[in-house]
Design goal:
Elements (H helix, E strand, L loop, with lengths): L2 E8 L5 H14 L7 E7 L2 H12 L13 E8 L5 E8 L3 H8 L5 H7 L1 E9 L9 H10 L19 H11 L11 E7 L1 H4 L6 H8 L1 H8 L6 E8 L16 H7 L9 E4 L2 E3 L3 H7 L2
């Protein structure tokens, strides 16, 4: 069923679960005054939300969402005028979206939740897979003394495609039947912005520099997307990976010492920054 709402999409390990954990903390802890505040939880497991929010507060890496874990979260948020905004977040594995690219298949459950007017597209700013040039591959192989086989073509696999190719194709799918619901708004969330900002660029110029195909696709308005670009550091730094037997890291301890955990959130658009994760949602629903 199509309608007004917001859906989170993104390839694996792009920051979707961390965002949901930070958002749940933000609207329940009330440490700051966000643009949208929580009215009620309509669907989903509050125990799960509390668990991922607690892990976020403790600066621990989130458990990986697996393909068979489809958790639907829906909540009513209130805007500044007191009007309700209905927001639906399918907390699903990024592999579900990668499969749309690689296998050209979409699970019926995913298809239903994608039929909404607002899209939060998560892109991990520190793990973008750029296009690879044959000349560069040869130079690297020669530098490390590894010979490349001659005369045997390497079979291409969809997973070999650069990040921006996969993302553009995913957005094009959303503008085709049976997923097309007409003009939509898109908020591109460049996650791990504490690392991405090291390039010295604001979020939109970063998109142009690092994902030029995606930027040109959106700027050309070929499929009618209205879009904004945000840099988002929902973690605030590196987390402990205790499940992997790793030692605690200084960043994690610093984050745990903050009086208000919401202060670790940093959302950047242009030259403006805030701690309010609900700002992109407010824009998507306006």
């Amino acid at each position: 069923m199509s309608g007004l709402g917001v859906v989170i999409i993104g390839l694996p390990a792009s920051g979707k679960t961390t965002f949901l954990a930070a958002l749940w903390h933000l609207v329940t802890a009330r440490e700051i005054e966000p643009a949208l505040r929580l009215a009620d939880l309509c669907a989903g497991d509050a125990t799960h939300l509390h668990a991922i929010a607690r892990r976020w507060r403790e600066a621990r890496v989130q458990d990986r969402t697996t393909v068979d874990q489809h958790r639907m979260v829906a909540m009513n948020l209130l805007d500044r005028s007191g009007a309700k905004v209905h927001v639906t977040f399918p907390d699903v594995a990024g592999e579900a979206y990668r499969r749309m690219w690689e296998d050209r298949e979409c699970d019926p459950e995913i298809r239903d939740v994608l039929s909404v007017s607002g899209v939060l597209l998560f892109v991990h700013s520190d793990t973008i897979e750029a296009p690879r040039w044959i000349e560069d591959e040869i130079a690297v192989a020669q530098a490390i003394g590894v010979g490349l086989p001659e005369g045997t073509p390497l079979e291409w696999q969809p997973g070999h495609a650069p990040t921006q190719v996969q993302l553009v194709d995913l957005l094009q799918m959303l503008r085709q039947d049976p997923l097309n619901v007409g003009p939509r708004k898109l908020a591109i969330m460049l996650s791990a912005w504490d690392k991405g900002q090291g390039e010295g660029l604001a979020p939109e110029p970063f998109l142009v520099a690092k994902l030029p195909l995606l930027a040109q696709y959106l700027q050309s308005a070929a499929d009618g997307w209205s879009f904004r670009v945000y840099g988002l550091s929902a973690q605030g730094g590196d987390y402990d990976q205790v499940d992997l037997g790793g030692a605690e890291v200084p960043d994690a301890e610093r984050l745990r010492q903050l009086d208000a955990a919401s202060q670790r959130i940093r959302l950047v658009r242009g030259t403006e920054a805030s701690h309010d994760l609900t700002e992109p949602i407010e824009w998507l629903m306006s």
